[in-house]
Amino acid sequence: MLFRSGHTGDNDSRGGGSAGAGREKGHAGSGDAGRGGGEALRRLRLRFTGQVQGVGFRWNSQRVAREVGCTGWVRNEWDGSVRMELQGTDEQVSEFFGLFSKAYRQYPIEYTIPEKEEVPPVEDEPSFSVRY
């Protein structure tokens, strides 16, 4: 599936939908990262390919994840792709993809998510980090 940042369409809270749609309401960046106020947490393991290195992808991922209250990590891979584990409620995950796309509105990038799987949530994960 190809994503172009800045595209507007339906947002898929499962993390594989249109990366350009976002919510216009407030965000869960209250310091309760990944806790979701009692809602069930989910964790996605993702691999991004395309224009994902050298464009601030990891740092924008971290900023947006923290803003919406998600936890997890992101890192560059040797093959030019980016790996990410993203944890939060369905709403937080959905907000992540919407806001992440907005981060590249002025300078659109194209990327695909060729791998996406649900993995068990990590308890007591403190935040979202950039790994090396």
Automatic annotation (TrEMBL):
Residues 28-37 have a biased composition (Gly residues). Residues 1-37 are annotated as: Disordered. The active site is at R58, N76. Keywords: Hydrolase. It catalyses: an acyl phosphate + H2O = a carboxylate + phosphate + H(+). Its EC number is 3.6.1.7. Residues 43-132 form the Acylphosphatase-like domain. It comes from the Bacteria. It is an enzyme of class 3 (hydrolase). Belongs to the acylphosphatase family. This is acylphosphatase. The lineage of its organism: Bacteria, Bacillati, Actinomycetota, Coriobacteriia, Coriobacteriales.
